[in-house]
Amino acid sequence: MEVVHISAECYPVAKAGGLGDVVGALPKYQNKAGITSKVVMPMYRTPFLYTSDWVVDYKAKAYMGGWEFEYTIIKEVNNKLGFDLYLVDIAGLLDRQKIYGYADDAERFTAFQIAVVHWMSHWNHRPTAVHCHDYHAGLIPFMMQHCYDYHHLRSVPTVLTIHNAQYQGWMPWAQSVLIPKWDLSKKGLLDWGNSINPLAAAIKCAYKITTVSPSYMQELMHHANGLETLIASEKNKCVGILNGIDHEVWNPATDTYLTAHFDVDTVTAGKQKNKEKICEQFGLDATKPLFVFIGRLVGEKAADVLPAALHTAVGAYGAYASYMILGSGDPAVEAGLTNLAYTNKNIKVSLGYNESLSHQLYAAADFLLMPSRVEPCGLNQLYAMRYGTVPMVRSTGGLQDTVVDMGDAGGYGIRFTHANETDIVHAVGRAIEVFENKTHLLWMRERMMQVNHSWEQTVQSYTNVYKSL
Ligand code: ADP
Ligand code: GLC
Predict the structure, then answer these.
(1) Quick one: which ligand is closest to 163's CA?
(2) Which of 26, 243, 385 to mutate to test the pocket of ligand 2 (most atoms within 8 A of CB)?
(3) Which residue of 71, 262, 322, 357 is most buried, as measured by CB atoms within 10 A?
(4) Ligand 2 atom, smallest distance to 161 CA
(5) Per-residue pLDDT band at 320 (split at 50, 70, 90)
C-alpha cells in the first residue's frame, strides 16, 4: 500500500500548528506499520531545508492560467523523518520563510497543487491513495478527476482530512483561470456560495473524508462555517478519527528541551524542577500553581476572553496563582495580554512562536487552559497530559473526546461549558482546590500520563479507510 500525503505543513520542516504535528508523525507510524507513506509539501525557506541533504527528483514546467512556471521536486536523502519527504519548489511563490499570510496565498497553493498533480501524472505507477490535508490541498481531488491533462489519475482514490473547517481557501470565480483546463460542466463541484471553495470541492470530490476527532465530525453538521448542509449530505463518506501524538517527540523522559527529565514515577519532583527554571526565567513564584495557555491568539481558541478572564481570576484568587501565556495572533489580544502583564506580576506573556519554550511550559505547568470555541482535535491537551499537566478545557470537539472531568469516575481534567469569563474563573477556582490536595493531584497526574494516545493505535483506523476505497 502506498499513500501520498499532501500538506502545507509538516513538523519539523514547517509548522504553524497541529496540522504540522500530525503530518510529521502519522506517516512515520504508517511506515512502521508497513504502509509506504510519503509526504509532499511546499519548499519554504525554513531552517530544516538548510540543515538536511537533498537530491533533485524531478523538474518540469506546468501552466497556471497563462503563466508557464518551472517547478522542482527535491527529496530528502537520509530518511530523517522516518518517511520519504518531497518538497516542491516554485520560484517567486513558495521560496519564502513563512507558510501562510501572503496576499498571493491563493496563487501559491494553487501552483503547489498543480505541480504535485502534474508530477504524479508522470509517475509510471499509481499510488494506492492520495491523502489531502485541509484546503491547501483541497483542489487536488477535483484536478485529478476533472482536469483534462490528468485524466489518467482519475481512478486513484483520494482522502481528505479536515483538520479545521474554519479555513476554506475561498477564491473569487475570476481566479478559476488558474486551474488547468477543466471540464466546465463540473463547475458546481468547485462552487460553494458563489465562490470557488477548495475545502468544499474536496468534500465533494474526495472518496472519503476524515475529521480529526469523532465529536468534531458530529459538530460539523451544525457548525462548519457555512458548510453544514454539504457535510450533512456527504456524511456517509465521513469518519472521525482521533489524532495521536508522537510519543518519541513528546516524551518527558527524553525531551531534550527540558531542564529535568521525568516519568510517571518521578513526576512531582521532575515537574517542580522544570517549574523552578521557568519561574526563575520569567520572575514567577514556583510555590504557586502555574496556569499556562499555549496557542494561536485567535477567536477559535477564545483568546479574546483571556485578558478579562485572567484579570478577574487574579481579582478572585489574589496571589494564589501564576499565569503564563505563549502565543501570537490578534493584535488586540496581544495588546490586552501585554497590558495585563504590565500591571500584574503574577502574569507573564511571551508573544511569538517558540517550540522549545512550549515544551518547557508543558513540563513546568500545573494546569493548561484551553477554552477553545472550536477545537477539531487539539494536541495541546494531549501533550499536557503526557507531561502530567492537568488540562482545563471547554467541552467541545476533540477536547470533549479526550478529557474526563475530575468530578467523573476516573477523571483527570477540568471541563467547562462556555468560553467565557465566568466559566474560566470558576475552573481556575477548582484547579486551585485540587492543587492544595496533593494526593489527588498526584493521582490525576499518574493517571493522565498513562492514557495512551500513541499513533500506533490510530494508524489502523486510517488503514481501514484506505482499504475501503
Ligand atoms: P491548532 O493546530 O489549532 O493551532 P493544536 O492544539 O492542534 O491547535 O496544535 C497546536 C500546536 O502548535 C501544538 O504543537 C502547540 O504546542 C503548538 N503551538 C501553538 N502556539 C505555539 C507557540 N506560540 N509557540 C510554540 N508552539 C506553539
Ligand atoms: C487543526 C485544529 C486542531 C487539530 C489540528 C491537528 O489545526 O485546529 O484542533 O488538533 O488541526 O489535526
Answers:
(1) 2
(2) 243
(3) 322
(4) 12
(5) confident
* Atom 5 of ligand 2: nearest residue by CA position: 18
Mean pLDDT of the 400-405 span: 98
Q: Would you list the domain boundaries of the chain?
A: 2-244+456-468, 267-449
Nearest protein CA to atom 12 of ligand 1, as residue? 17
pLDDT tens for 259-274 read 999 999 999 999 999 9
Cα 389 from Cα 341, distance rounded (Å): 23
Give the closest residue (by CA) to ligand 1 atom 9: 18
Examine domains 2-244+456-468 and 267-449 and report if their fold is the same.
yes
Domain 2-244+456-468 part of CATH 3.40.50.2000: yes
How much is the pTM? 0.97
Q: What is the DSSP string of 309-370?
A: HHHHHHHHHGGG-EEEEEEEE-HHHHHHHHHHHHH-TTEEEEES--HHHHHHHHHH-SEEEE
Q: Rounded CA gap, 180 and 174, in Å?
A: 14
For residues 80 and 66, give the distance between their C-alpha atoms in angstroms, rounded to a whole number.
Answer: 38
Pocket of ligand 2 (CB under 6 A): 17-19, 22, 163-164, 212, 243, 375-379, 398
Cβ atoms of 396 and 373 within 8 Å: the answer is: yes
Q: Is 17 in the pocket of ligand 1 (CB under 6 A)?
A: yes
164-215-391 Cα angle (round to 5): 85
